[in-house]
Amino acid sequence: MTDTVRPPDVLGTLVRDPLVWALTALVLLTFGMDSLRPLFAAAFPALERPVFAQDSFPALMLAHIVLVAVSSGISIVAGVAAGVFVTRPSGAEFRSVVESVVAIGQTFPPVAVLAVAVPLIGFGEIPALIALALYGLLPVVQQTIAGLEAVPHAAREVAKGLGMDAIQVLNRVDLPLALPVIIAGVRTSVIINIGTATIASTIGAKTLGTPIIVGLSGFNTAYILQGALLVGLLAIVTDLAFGRLERHVDRWRFVS
Hints:
The protein has helices at residues 10-15, 18-32, 37-43, 57-86, 95-107, 110-121, 125-135, 137-149, 153-161, 166-196, 209-218, 221-255.
């Protein structure tokens, strides 16, 4: 009697996947918040406008994601480059300076950075990008340094023995082995920026913080809950997605 190969239970896997549930909830709430108007009206009967309507939630979501993506991209490129530089012999003497600078970037609250940037640059997305990029540097730099320092010395020696130069060792040995740790730093940086980007609405940038700021100024708790709920779900979806990416990277490193 031959054993039959059972096909993978794709539907069951999707049903049990928390990322699918979180992403579904995020999409439904982003595009269907107005359908919850009766619920918010019942929960907050004193409010004349229980659902934020000054801008659409899909537009706010898109603007928030773009702001976080661009600022995080700057943090990732600059942070990884700085981490690589200070772990090379030519940049080792600058390590303490780089670590101090990126630590200062997160020591100052983003509100303080915005307060300094606005008089020089003006209102809008640019000062928000500067504040978020500076605020997201520290985890990327720290984890890049930690990941590169954790690479076994023997692996580098083998690569050099095979005739690789310094650039090839970095690209083929150091960065691939340090990648899981670097991704962990990127994960932390992006999650921080998702939450921090909400305050960019105080200087005219369109984000999911807009209903929160309007709700706080107008004593509208419903607006605050709507913005906070979407920000929280976006952070959860992003965190779960990065967790999935880390597992794939670990599996790829094991196979390769």
